[in-house]
Design a protein that fits this description.
- The structure is a single chain.
- The chain contains five helices and no strands.
- By secondary structure, it is an all-alpha fold.
- α3 runs antiparallel to α4.
- The protein is elongated.
């Protein structure tokens, strides 16, 4: 028999073998929940000590908790950004409504002194500052705003929960 007709044996790194076995496990047990006994049996079949399994479960729980906390933090920051955009849009709408009113009042009462420029300038400077602040996504001022918003929302959430 010719050696070239024999199937070539493939070799895998430790990480590749883990990845392949993870995929095979997902395919095999996709709809299954594993009991503690089943998990211990699988670990034993793979040559994993009971001590290593206990440590792995503890590490898994810690990592799961950390991942959940990170996910929650990302969600909260997204809500905070939405709040900031809404606050800016409210400021913009109020400015767009008030300035024409000031112009009308000024022009209807007196055209000798155009005083509407003074509050208009102040309002536009305030709106520009608000827009600039909206662009800031880090730093002590941003963190201070975020934590104030977070505390307010937690208190509001507690009040709503207590009312139910």
């Amino acid at each position: 028999m010719d050696e070239s007709s024999l199937p070539q044996e493939s070799f895998y790194s430790e990480q590749q073998a883990r990845d392949i076995l993870k995929i095979a496990s997902r395919l095999e047990y996709d709809q299954s929940d594993f009991s503690e006994a089943h998990l211990q049996q699988m670990a034993q079949e793979l040559g994993i000590s009971e001590n290593a399994l206990v440590r792995a479960k503890a590490q898994y729980l810690v990592e799961k908790e950390q991942l959940e906390a990170q996910r929650e933090e990302v969600e909260l920051q997204s809500e905070f950004e939405k709040y900031r955009r809404n606050a800016f849009m409210t400021h913009l709408v109020v400015t767009v409504i008030i300035i024409p009113m000031l112009i009308a009042i000024n022009l209807l009462t007196s055209t000798e002194f155009l005083w509407f420029f003074i509050p208009m300038f102040a309002m536009l400077v305030g709106l520009g500052g608000h827009y600039w602040g909206l662009q800031q996504k880090e730093g002590s001022f941003y963190n201070q705003q975020y934590h104030q918003w977070l505390m307010f929302n937690r208190r509001k959430h507690k009040r709503l929960s207590a009312g139910n």
